[in-house]
Write a sequence for this structure.
């Protein structure tokens, strides 16, 4: 028997259901509000991505700030290079196949000279060493003069996925699929493995993780919490 949140509406804060509708992707709303079974562990992970509807011809403008989601993977560093425009995040270029963090820094400094760089790395890069045993990847990025935006630990994988799907659903995340071919393909093709976890064998996880670190930091999905005697908090 399905238990609908609407059936318990009178016992909830007045803004609880509207807050859920605003916060979560539609697929999750079906589960939370209507009490219906929804399968989140099979099929395409980024089910809200549609390259036709969510495409953009946007390219980098001279000297504008760049926002880069960064996945560390020695031998195949992956970057999602984005801009912000009218409240939207637009993925406009990608960097792939770069060997390590020093090589990444050289590439960014050469390719994006004159741009202020905001970079959103994998939080575990604080302990990962790609070259010098005494210098972490994140320390290298900071020393390079980039504005490093990272929390002490990575968000849960499911939260990163939710953030991307919600951003696509609301039209706040767009992708230039011509310039970002690898990222667009990864968004379309990454699926869940037989254990219900995002597949990591195909290599599609690296572009999606890179984009996810940025999107989840800038547009996190935060579930409303009901505090007894006080009401709702985020």
């Amino acid at each position: 028997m399905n238990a609908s949140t609407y059936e318990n509406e009178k016992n909830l804060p007045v803004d609880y259901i509207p807050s859920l509708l605003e916060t979560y992707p539609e697929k999750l709303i079906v589960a939370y509000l209507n009490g219906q079974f929804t399968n989140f562990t099979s099929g395409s992970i980024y089910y809200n991505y549609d390259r036709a509807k969510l495409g953009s011809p946007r390219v980098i403008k001279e000297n504008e700030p760049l926002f880069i989601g960064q996945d560390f993977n020695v031998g195949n560093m992956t970057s999602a290079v984005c801009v912000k425009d009218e409240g939207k995040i637009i993925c406009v270029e990608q960097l792939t196949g770069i060997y390590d963090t020093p090589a990444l820094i050289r590439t960014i400094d050469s390719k994006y000279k004159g741009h202020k760089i905001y970079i959103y790395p994998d939080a575990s890069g604080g302990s990962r060493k790609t070259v010098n045993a005494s210098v972490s990847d994140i320390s290298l990025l900071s020393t390079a003069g980039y504005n490093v935006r990272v929390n002490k630990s990575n968000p849960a994988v499911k939260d990163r996925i939710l953030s991307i799907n919600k951003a696509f659903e609301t039209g706040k995340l767009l992708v230039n699929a011509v310039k970002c071919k690898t990222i667009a393909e990864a968004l379309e093709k990454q699926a869940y493995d037989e254990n219900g976890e995002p597949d990591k064998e195909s290599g599609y996880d690296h572009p999606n993780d890179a984009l996810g670190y940025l999107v989840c930091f800038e547009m996190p999905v935060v579930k409303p919490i009901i505090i007894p005697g006080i009401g709702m908090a985020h």
User: Anything to note?
Assistant: The radius of gyration is 19 Å. The first helix runs from residue 16 to 23. DSSP finds seven helices and eight strands in the chain. Residues 5-38 form one domain.
